[in-house]
Specification:
single chain; about 130 residues; mainly alpha
Length: about 130
């Protein structure tokens, strides 16, 4: 989770197209890795660490929301809100029930549309 917060600097430094790719594709690869590898290869460890991962997800949600609220730069705002949104995806993933794991699929795609509206919109001259 801490490495995901470094993505804000990558969003600011990258050109607009790179920023869209970062928010739309690369940030989602971590949740895919947890779903594909962690939960399938290590199911017992996932069950044991699920409360800790849910706690880290809630901390990421709150911290990302607080930091994004204070941003003046639109790209940083999008970056931190995307990371905060990924906390919701991880929370659903580590709920380990029939509602949480499938429910993360639509939530995983939402930051992509928000980022496209904010960054690629002509009103924001980035």
């Amino acid at each position: 989770m801490a490495i995901a917060f470094l993505a804000a600097d990558a969003h600011v430094e990258a050109p607009t197209a790179g920023s869209v790719i970062l928010a739309g594709v690369l940030l989602k690869m971590g949740t895919y890795g947890f779903l594909r590898f962690n939960l399938q290869l290590f199911p017992q460890a996932a069950w044991q660490l699920a409360p800790w991962m849910a706690g880290l997800a809630v901390i990421g949600i709150l911290y990302g929301a607080a930091v994004s609220y204070a941003q003046k730069d639109v790209k940083k705002l999008v970056a931190y809100s995307s990371v905060s949104h990924l906390g919701f995806v991880m929370l659903g993933l580590f709920a380990l029930n029939s509602q949480g794991v499938p429910g993360r699929h639509p939530a995983n795609g939402q930051p992509r549309y928000k980022h496209r509206r904010l960054v690629l919109d002509r009103r924001y001259d980035l």
